[in-house]
Write a structure and sequence with these properties.
The chain is of the alpha/beta class. The protein folds into 2 domains: 85 residues, no CATH class; 203 residues, Rossmann fold. Helix content is 42%, strand content 12%. It contains 13 helices and 10 strands. The strands form 4 sheets. A 4-stranded parallel β-sheet has the order 9-8-7-10, with helices on both faces. Strands 1-2 form a two-stranded antiparallel sheet. It has a two-stranded antiparallel ribbon with strand order 3-4. Strand 7, helix 8 and strand 8 form a beta-alpha-beta unit. It binds pyridoxal-5'-phosphate. Pyridoxal-5'-phosphate binds next to strand 7 and helix 8.
Protein backbone atom coordinates (compact mmCIF):
# COMPACT_ATOMS: atom_id res chain seq x y z
CA UNK A 1 0.00 0.00 0.00
CA UNK A 2 2.78 2.42 1.00
CA UNK A 3 4.34 1.87 -2.40
CA UNK A 4 1.39 3.38 -4.24
CA UNK A 5 0.95 6.48 -2.11
CA UNK A 6 2.30 9.83 -3.30
CA UNK A 7 2.48 12.60 -0.74
CA UNK A 8 1.80 16.11 -1.97
CA UNK A 9 5.06 18.05 -1.26
CA UNK A 10 3.41 20.90 0.66
CA UNK A 11 1.23 18.66 2.74
CA UNK A 12 2.23 16.89 5.93
CA UNK A 13 1.15 13.28 5.95
CA UNK A 14 -2.16 13.09 7.78
CA UNK A 15 -3.89 9.79 7.59
CA UNK A 16 -7.34 11.21 7.59
CA UNK A 17 -8.39 9.44 4.41
CA UNK A 18 -10.23 12.04 2.49
CA UNK A 19 -10.32 12.32 -1.25
CA UNK A 20 -11.95 14.19 -4.06
CA UNK A 21 -14.96 12.31 -5.36
CA UNK A 22 -15.16 14.23 -8.59
CA UNK A 23 -11.51 14.12 -9.49
CA UNK A 24 -11.14 10.44 -8.79
CA UNK A 25 -14.44 9.37 -10.23
CA UNK A 26 -15.15 7.16 -7.25
CA UNK A 27 -18.34 6.64 -5.37
CA UNK A 28 -18.88 8.71 -2.25
CA UNK A 29 -22.15 9.95 -0.76
CA UNK A 30 -23.22 13.11 -2.56
CA UNK A 31 -23.48 15.54 0.34
CA UNK A 32 -19.89 15.25 1.46
CA UNK A 33 -17.37 17.88 0.42
CA UNK A 34 -13.99 16.20 0.19
CA UNK A 35 -10.61 17.92 0.04
CA UNK A 36 -7.56 15.84 -0.76
CA UNK A 37 -5.01 15.73 2.05
CA UNK A 38 -3.11 12.68 0.95
CA UNK A 39 -2.70 11.91 -2.70
CA UNK A 40 -2.74 8.20 -3.26
CA UNK A 41 -3.23 6.06 -6.30
CA UNK A 42 -6.76 5.85 -7.61
CA UNK A 43 -7.87 2.73 -5.79
CA UNK A 44 -6.58 3.63 -2.37
CA UNK A 45 -7.88 7.16 -2.45
CA UNK A 46 -11.19 5.93 -3.81
CA UNK A 47 -11.55 3.55 -0.90
CA UNK A 48 -10.50 6.24 1.51
CA UNK A 49 -13.05 8.70 0.16
CA UNK A 50 -15.77 6.14 0.49
CA UNK A 51 -15.04 4.63 3.86
CA UNK A 52 -14.28 7.90 5.59
CA UNK A 53 -17.91 8.96 5.51
CA UNK A 54 -19.85 8.16 8.64
CA UNK A 55 -23.00 7.87 6.55
CA UNK A 56 -21.45 5.08 4.46
CA UNK A 57 -23.64 2.03 3.90
CA UNK A 58 -23.80 -0.72 6.49
CA UNK A 59 -22.32 -4.13 5.79
CA UNK A 60 -25.20 -6.44 4.73
CA UNK A 61 -26.60 -8.53 7.60
CA UNK A 62 -27.69 -11.42 5.36
CA UNK A 63 -26.35 -13.46 2.46
CA UNK A 64 -28.66 -14.04 -0.49
CA UNK A 65 -29.26 -17.63 -1.58
CA UNK A 66 -29.70 -17.59 -5.35
CA UNK A 67 -31.13 -21.12 -5.33
CA UNK A 68 -34.34 -19.79 -3.81
CA UNK A 69 -35.12 -17.83 -6.98
CA UNK A 70 -33.89 -20.14 -9.70
CA UNK A 71 -36.79 -21.39 -11.84
CA UNK A 72 -34.87 -24.61 -12.43
CA UNK A 73 -32.75 -25.97 -9.60
CA UNK A 74 -29.15 -26.84 -10.48
CA UNK A 75 -28.35 -30.55 -10.59
CA UNK A 76 -26.92 -31.84 -7.29
CA UNK A 77 -23.21 -32.56 -6.95
CA UNK A 78 -22.50 -36.26 -7.56
CA UNK A 79 -20.67 -38.63 -5.28
CA UNK A 80 -17.30 -39.34 -6.95
CA UNK A 81 -17.59 -43.12 -6.35
CA UNK A 82 -21.29 -43.91 -6.82
CA UNK A 83 -22.15 -40.99 -9.16
CA UNK A 84 -25.38 -40.67 -7.15
CA UNK A 85 -26.40 -37.25 -5.77
CA UNK A 86 -24.40 -36.61 -2.60
CA UNK A 87 -26.29 -36.93 0.68
CA UNK A 88 -25.57 -34.79 3.76
CA UNK A 89 -23.93 -37.80 5.45
CA UNK A 90 -21.49 -38.09 2.52
CA UNK A 91 -20.40 -34.53 3.15
CA UNK A 92 -20.06 -34.65 6.92
CA UNK A 93 -16.49 -36.03 7.00
CA UNK A 94 -15.51 -32.93 5.02
CA UNK A 95 -17.71 -30.06 6.17
CA UNK A 96 -19.32 -28.86 9.41
CA UNK A 97 -23.11 -29.30 9.78
CA UNK A 98 -24.00 -25.65 9.30
CA UNK A 99 -22.23 -25.48 5.92
CA UNK A 100 -23.91 -28.70 4.80
CA UNK A 101 -27.26 -27.11 5.71
CA UNK A 102 -26.35 -24.03 3.69
CA UNK A 103 -25.49 -26.30 0.78
CA UNK A 104 -28.99 -27.71 0.69
CA UNK A 105 -31.20 -24.87 1.89
CA UNK A 106 -33.96 -23.19 -0.15
CA UNK A 107 -34.16 -20.22 2.23
CA UNK A 108 -33.75 -16.96 0.37
CA UNK A 109 -31.73 -15.07 3.01
CA UNK A 110 -29.31 -16.43 5.61
CA UNK A 111 -28.21 -14.31 8.57
CA UNK A 112 -24.51 -13.49 8.63
CA UNK A 113 -23.19 -14.34 12.12
CA UNK A 114 -22.23 -11.27 14.16
CA UNK A 115 -18.65 -12.58 14.64
CA UNK A 116 -18.27 -12.84 10.87
CA UNK A 117 -19.58 -9.30 10.38
CA UNK A 118 -17.03 -8.14 12.96
CA UNK A 119 -14.25 -9.59 10.81
CA UNK A 120 -15.79 -8.29 7.56
CA UNK A 121 -15.52 -4.82 9.15
CA UNK A 122 -11.73 -5.03 8.75
CA UNK A 123 -12.15 -4.32 5.02
CA UNK A 124 -15.87 -3.98 4.24
CA UNK A 125 -17.66 -2.12 2.78
CA UNK A 126 -15.37 -2.43 -0.19
CA UNK A 127 -15.21 0.49 -2.63
CA UNK A 128 -17.54 0.88 -5.53
CA UNK A 129 -15.51 2.80 -8.07
CA UNK A 130 -16.68 4.62 -11.13
CA UNK A 131 -14.72 3.47 -14.21
CA UNK A 132 -14.59 6.86 -15.87
CA UNK A 133 -11.70 6.02 -18.17
CA UNK A 134 -13.52 2.95 -19.43
CA UNK A 135 -16.68 5.03 -19.99
CA UNK A 136 -14.58 7.49 -22.00
CA UNK A 137 -12.88 4.74 -23.97
CA UNK A 138 -16.24 3.19 -24.85
CA UNK A 139 -17.72 6.62 -25.55
CA UNK A 140 -20.84 5.60 -23.69
CA UNK A 141 -23.38 7.66 -21.78
CA UNK A 142 -23.63 4.75 -19.34
CA UNK A 143 -22.08 5.11 -15.89
CA UNK A 144 -19.89 2.09 -15.24
CA UNK A 145 -18.88 1.03 -11.74
CA UNK A 146 -16.76 -1.79 -10.44
CA UNK A 147 -16.59 -3.26 -6.99
CA UNK A 148 -13.01 -3.61 -5.78
CA UNK A 149 -12.48 -6.62 -3.50
CA UNK A 150 -8.69 -6.39 -3.49
CA UNK A 151 -8.71 -4.39 -0.24
CA UNK A 152 -9.16 -7.49 1.92
CA UNK A 153 -6.15 -8.57 4.04
CA UNK A 154 -5.41 -11.44 1.66
CA UNK A 155 -5.95 -9.24 -1.40
CA UNK A 156 -9.00 -10.81 -3.01
CA UNK A 157 -12.70 -11.64 -2.54
CA UNK A 158 -11.82 -15.05 -1.05
CA UNK A 159 -11.85 -14.10 2.64
CA UNK A 160 -15.60 -13.40 2.21
CA UNK A 161 -16.11 -17.15 2.40
CA UNK A 162 -12.92 -18.26 4.20
CA UNK A 163 -13.97 -16.33 7.31
CA UNK A 164 -17.46 -17.87 7.69
CA UNK A 165 -16.19 -21.33 6.72
CA UNK A 166 -13.58 -21.22 9.48
CA UNK A 167 -16.04 -19.69 11.93
CA UNK A 168 -18.62 -22.46 11.39
CA UNK A 169 -15.86 -25.04 11.79
CA UNK A 170 -14.65 -23.43 15.01
CA UNK A 171 -18.24 -23.41 16.39
CA UNK A 172 -18.38 -27.15 15.84
CA UNK A 173 -15.12 -27.63 17.76
CA UNK A 174 -13.02 -28.42 14.68
CA UNK A 175 -9.34 -27.67 15.31
CA UNK A 176 -7.76 -28.46 11.91
CA UNK A 177 -8.73 -27.51 8.38
CA UNK A 178 -7.07 -28.36 5.09
CA UNK A 179 -7.33 -27.03 1.58
CA UNK A 180 -5.56 -26.62 -1.76
CA UNK A 181 -4.39 -23.48 -3.46
CA UNK A 182 -3.44 -22.61 -7.03
CA UNK A 183 -2.47 -18.96 -7.32
CA UNK A 184 -2.27 -18.78 -3.53
CA UNK A 185 -5.22 -16.47 -3.00
CA UNK A 186 -7.49 -19.11 -1.52
CA UNK A 187 -4.80 -20.65 0.68
CA UNK A 188 -3.79 -17.29 2.09
CA UNK A 189 -7.44 -16.34 2.71
CA UNK A 190 -8.00 -19.52 4.66
CA UNK A 191 -4.73 -19.08 6.57
CA UNK A 192 -5.83 -15.55 7.48
CA UNK A 193 -9.26 -16.76 8.69
CA UNK A 194 -7.68 -19.57 10.73
CA UNK A 195 -5.34 -17.12 12.43
CA UNK A 196 -8.39 -15.16 13.63
CA UNK A 197 -10.27 -18.11 15.11
CA UNK A 198 -7.30 -20.20 16.33
CA UNK A 199 -7.54 -23.17 13.95
CA UNK A 200 -4.62 -25.07 12.47
CA UNK A 201 -4.46 -24.71 8.71
CA UNK A 202 -2.67 -26.95 6.22
CA UNK A 203 -2.48 -26.03 2.55
CA UNK A 204 -1.46 -28.07 -0.49
CA UNK A 205 -0.08 -25.54 -2.95
CA UNK A 206 0.28 -26.60 -6.59
CA UNK A 207 4.00 -27.33 -7.05
CA UNK A 208 4.48 -24.83 -9.92
CA UNK A 209 2.92 -22.07 -7.84
CA UNK A 210 4.87 -23.13 -4.72
CA UNK A 211 8.10 -22.58 -6.68
CA UNK A 212 7.03 -19.49 -8.62
CA UNK A 213 5.23 -17.61 -5.83
CA UNK A 214 7.28 -17.96 -2.64
CA UNK A 215 5.77 -14.73 -1.30
CA UNK A 216 2.28 -16.26 -1.27
CA UNK A 217 3.69 -19.24 0.61
CA UNK A 218 5.31 -16.84 3.09
CA UNK A 219 2.02 -15.02 3.55
CA UNK A 220 0.29 -18.28 4.44
CA UNK A 221 3.11 -19.22 6.80
CA UNK A 222 3.01 -15.78 8.40
CA UNK A 223 -0.66 -16.39 9.19
CA UNK A 224 0.41 -19.69 10.78
CA UNK A 225 -0.43 -22.20 8.03
CA UNK A 226 1.64 -25.24 7.11
CA UNK A 227 2.22 -25.30 3.35
CA UNK A 228 3.08 -28.38 1.29
CA UNK A 229 4.01 -28.46 -2.39
CA UNK A 230 1.56 -30.66 -4.29
CA UNK A 231 1.99 -33.45 -5.30
CA UNK A 232 3.46 -34.39 -1.91
CA UNK A 233 4.56 -37.67 -0.45
CA UNK A 234 2.24 -37.10 2.52
CA UNK A 235 -0.85 -38.50 0.79
CA UNK A 236 -1.69 -41.60 -1.20
CA UNK A 237 -2.92 -39.41 -4.07
CA UNK A 238 0.32 -37.42 -4.13
CA UNK A 239 2.55 -40.48 -3.88
CA UNK A 240 0.81 -42.11 -6.84
CA UNK A 241 1.48 -39.05 -9.01
CA UNK A 242 5.10 -38.75 -7.84
CA UNK A 243 5.77 -42.40 -8.63
CA UNK A 244 4.81 -41.78 -12.24
CA UNK A 245 6.33 -38.32 -12.51
CA UNK A 246 8.73 -37.24 -9.75
CA UNK A 247 8.99 -33.76 -11.31
CA UNK A 248 5.26 -33.24 -11.69
CA UNK A 249 4.37 -29.50 -11.60
CA UNK A 250 1.07 -30.45 -9.95
CA UNK A 251 -2.42 -29.22 -10.68
CA UNK A 252 -5.38 -27.89 -8.75
CA UNK A 253 -7.10 -31.26 -9.16
CA UNK A 254 -4.17 -33.12 -7.59
CA UNK A 255 -3.96 -30.61 -4.74
CA UNK A 256 -7.71 -30.98 -4.10
CA UNK A 257 -7.32 -34.77 -4.01
CA UNK A 258 -4.55 -34.48 -1.42
CA UNK A 259 -6.45 -32.08 0.87
CA UNK A 260 -9.71 -34.06 0.59
CA UNK A 261 -7.87 -37.30 1.35
CA UNK A 262 -6.40 -35.83 4.53
CA UNK A 263 -9.81 -34.55 5.69
CA UNK A 264 -11.57 -37.79 4.79
CA UNK A 265 -9.07 -39.94 6.67
CA UNK A 266 -8.69 -37.81 9.81
CA UNK A 267 -11.73 -37.45 12.03
CA UNK A 268 -10.41 -34.25 13.61
CA UNK A 269 -9.87 -32.45 10.28
CA UNK A 270 -12.29 -30.77 7.85
CA UNK A 271 -11.86 -29.54 4.32
CA UNK A 272 -12.54 -26.00 3.03
CA UNK A 273 -13.32 -25.11 -0.56
CA UNK A 274 -12.77 -21.81 -2.36
CA UNK A 275 -15.44 -22.15 -5.07
CA UNK A 276 -17.78 -24.68 -6.70
CA UNK A 277 -20.29 -25.37 -3.90
CA UNK A 278 -23.39 -23.36 -3.07
CA UNK A 279 -22.31 -22.28 0.40
CA UNK A 280 -19.21 -20.64 -1.12
CA UNK A 281 -21.33 -18.76 -3.66
CA UNK A 282 -23.74 -17.83 -0.86
CA UNK A 283 -21.00 -16.15 1.19
CA UNK A 284 -19.80 -14.21 -1.84
CA UNK A 285 -23.22 -12.58 -2.21
CA UNK A 286 -22.13 -10.11 0.45
CA UNK A 287 -20.49 -8.30 -2.50
CA UNK A 288 -23.69 -7.92 -4.53
CA UNK A 289 -25.86 -7.16 -1.51
CA UNK A 290 -23.46 -4.41 -0.47
CA UNK A 291 -23.32 -3.11 -4.04
CA UNK A 292 -27.12 -2.78 -4.16
CA UNK A 293 -27.02 -0.63 -1.01
CA UNK A 294 -24.23 1.51 -2.44
CA UNK A 295 -26.05 1.96 -5.74
CA UNK A 296 -29.17 3.04 -3.84
CA UNK A 297 -27.07 5.60 -1.98
CA UNK A 298 -25.63 7.17 -5.13
C1 LIG B 1 -11.93 -25.32 -5.56
C2 LIG B 1 -10.82 -24.36 -5.77
N1 LIG B 1 -9.76 -24.45 -4.96
C3 LIG B 1 -8.71 -23.60 -5.09
C4 LIG B 1 -8.70 -22.66 -6.10
C5 LIG B 1 -7.46 -21.89 -6.27
O1 LIG B 1 -7.58 -20.66 -5.79
P1 LIG B 1 -6.28 -19.76 -5.82
O2 LIG B 1 -5.84 -19.73 -7.22
O3 LIG B 1 -6.79 -18.48 -5.29
O4 LIG B 1 -5.31 -20.40 -4.91
C6 LIG B 1 -9.80 -22.53 -6.95
C7 LIG B 1 -9.81 -21.48 -7.98
O5 LIG B 1 -10.74 -20.73 -8.08
C8 LIG B 1 -10.86 -23.40 -6.80
O6 LIG B 1 -11.90 -23.35 -7.63
Amino acid sequence: MAQSMILAPSVKPQFSFEGSRQRLGCFAPKKRQCRPRLLCDLRITARAAYTADSGAVEIPRQWYNLIADLPVKPPPPLHPKTFEPVKPEDLSPLFPDELIKQEATDERFIDIPEEVIDVYRLWRPTPLIRAKRLEKLLDTPARIYYKYEGVSPAGSHKPNTAVPQVWYNSRQGVKNVVTETGAGQWGSSLAFACSLFGLNCEVWQVRASYDQKPYRKLMMQTWGAKVHPSPSSITEAGRRILEKDPLSPGSLGIAISEAVEVAATNADTKYCLGSVLNHVLLHQTVIGEECIKQMEAI
